[in-house]
Amino acid sequence: MLNDILKFFNKTYEYMIILIVLVIILLITIANIFVVGPSDEAIVLRLGKLNRILEPGIHIKIPLIEEKLIVPVKIVQEVKFGFNTNNNTGPNLNEDDGIIITGDLNIIKVEWLVQYKISDPYSFMFKVEDPAKTITDIAKSSMNRLIGDNTIFEIINDNRVGVTEGVKASMNEIIKTYDLGIDIVQVQIRNAMPPKGKVYEAFEDVNIAIQDKNKFINEGRKKFNQIIPKIRGEALKLIEEAKGYKENRINTALAETAIFNAILNAYIKDPEITRERIYNEAMKEILESKDNIEIIDKNLNNFLPFKEVK
């Protein structure tokens, strides 16, 4: 009887050990199952070295020897400079980072931001010691250089897009050199003004004057577009009329020249007949064009004995 009881307890003990081991294995397995979100990728290190990069989904890693790092590769992150709030999805920076010297040696306060996405998780995590600081330093260096190439009026009014595009291109070039594993999506200048005070007020006056100037220019262009086409139309009309008059005069002159040449040739052949014909034609034209005609003798002394010859 005692032996049967001992055998029962021995078997139960063995079963308990097996059950405990199975539970431990199950717990360890569950603890090493992880989910990679739809906007992330996971880097798996085995004994500290890159083993694999995992796409979104459910995955498992080997306990103790493997480590996972989740990297948000599809989220647009941003770093803000010069803002007095810290609502950043990237590093939070001091408001003084927006104070920059322009090319004409003026001080300007710029509120701007850089948006980027991680394109290579491994490079982003391991190629540089501090990716966030590196991005910040590259951004500040590029912006300082581009603003230093422009005057304060260009930054405030005319060339913001040129500056931001230049900063983006410069950052992407440097990031490629560092193999940082990110792409710059956009650089934006949200606001750019001189620091508050008398200088700010003076620039406000200048801005108002510039706006007035642009208003007058636009009004002038509007009137120009209204008046000039009309004047050009009238000028073209006069030119066409002049061309028509020119052609008419040329044709008339050619016709008269042809008549003169014909008369000249006839005169050369028979001067007397030609002279008489010309005289008769001239007299006919004179007599037909006048209503009252009085004829006197060739010595201008007496009227001939008839009037109203037609």
Automatic annotation (TrEMBL):
Signal peptide: none annotated. Keywords: Hydrolase, Membrane, Protease, Transmembrane, Transmembrane helix. InterPro entries: Band7/mec-2_domain (IPR050710), Band_7 (IPR001107), Band_7/SPFH_dom_sf (IPR036013), HflK (IPR010201). The chain crosses the membrane at residues 12-36. Pfam families: Band_7 (PF01145). The keyword Membrane applies. GO terms for molecular function: peptidase activity. It is found in: Membrane. SMART domains: PHB. GO terms for biological process: proteolysis. It is a single-pass membrane protein. Residues 31-207 form the Band domain. One of its GO terms (cellular component) is membrane. HflC and HflK may interact to form a multimeric complex. NCBIfam families: hflK. Belongs to the band 7/mec-2 family. HflK subfamily. HflC and HflK could encode or regulate a protease. This is Protein HflK. The lineage of its organism: Bacteria, Pseudomonadati, Spirochaetota, Spirochaetia, Spirochaetales.
